[in-house]
DNA sequence: AATGAGGACAACCGCACAGAC
DNA sequence: AGTCTGTGCGGTTGTCCTCAT
């Protein structure tokens, strides 16, 4: 049976709304609320379909929506979230307060999409076009995208299922949203592959599959854990929550552990959250260990209850789990503020990439198969750490060297996914139009 | 000044889903 | 359990505006 139309089409006005109609709708809703949209037009004296009234209200007339030019930060957020979520405008809109999904969708289609396209970046995959072409040539790209999509959708579902539990465990004051910080302009020469989460994930699968067909994941194995080097290619960032956060955390799911896997990475039911505040950006595996990984120049090796790791001029402190968290809170918060000063998402990325997230609470609980981190330090701050199966390193430097291949190898610029920090910054600067 | 192309944005369409009945 | 209704969502279309010719 076909679905009955929401209202009789005949005699109803269509097309652009007039100011008079807007006023009628606003006045009615302010006085009575919208109630049943179907019944609203007649009650409000409008010759419009209820659905049309609803759309007009939610996308345009609602008082709590912001209109006008998108800010730089909003643009960055849209681009990054689109790379993560695809055309899921409502999910993207949930991270942009006071913006509607329709507005974001239109802005993407008319501005951002074209801008990326002009820069030689495929707006669908967020990869340089040449690379997309290469990947599609061997037919593997679609497969990888499908794997990613599968993981992503699973994450969304998992978030819904686990949100209550997660929020209970970590008790954030509000739900976080992702906001990307400004990237310092750099001179741009070329377009290296991006190092965002999607890229790292896809590359890891891609490399594995390309190099070993026997290892190719069948469709039924979309949720198998990524290979070890995938975890090395993935990175995390510091994160915090904020009292003004308004929208749900976006998540990426890391698949269930497969005991038959040849790698040691075990990511039991971890959810990688993408969260941030105006000051901080982060990816986090929900788990039970604690890390603080702030960047940078505020690094002070004399800070006694942290271990210092340097990488690419950034620093990270690994929280000593034996310390009383309460005693560290203030210092942590002070240290974190430097991220705002540096205002650079890639600084945060590099801080975590180079950070010693390996030797962690596992020492205490003998649970070596988990290195994901997520700890609440205060009402305002939730700390995150990157995950890997790295409980065996004697020092953070060794760990970072293992992960990055950069610290103890004479300063080589190699890094995960074959892309350096500078290249990565260049990528984002170009992608965001700051060249 | 007239006109056509293209861009920007609002509005619409149709499907999917959840909840009420 | 099946149907209906309200709503959310993503894709598409329509309309208006700007600018070049």
Structural description of this entry:
- It is globular, with a radius of gyration of 24 Å.
- It has helices at residues 19-32, 40-44, 50-61, 72-85, 89-93, 101-118, 129-137, 141-170, 197-211, 228-233, 325-342, 345-353, 362-365, 396-404, 421-431; strands at 121-122, 127-128, 250-253, 271-276, 281-285, 306-311, 314-319, 373-376, 382-385.
- The protein has 435 residues and is mainly α.
- A hairpin with a 2-residue loop joins strand 6 (306-311) and strand 7 (314-319).
- The model is unreliable at 1-9 and 131-435 (pLDDT under 50).
- The strands form four sheets. Strands 3-4-5 form a three-stranded antiparallel beta sheet.
- The structure holds a DNA duplex (21 and 21 nucleotides).
| Total number of domains | 2
What is the ordering of alpha helices and beta strands?
Answer: HHHHHHEEHHHHEEEEEHHHEEHH
Contiguous helical run count: 15
Main-sheet strand order equals 3-4-5
Mean pLDDT: 45
Uncertain runs with pLDDT below 50, 5 residues or more?
1-9, 131-435
Beta fraction of the residues? 5-15%
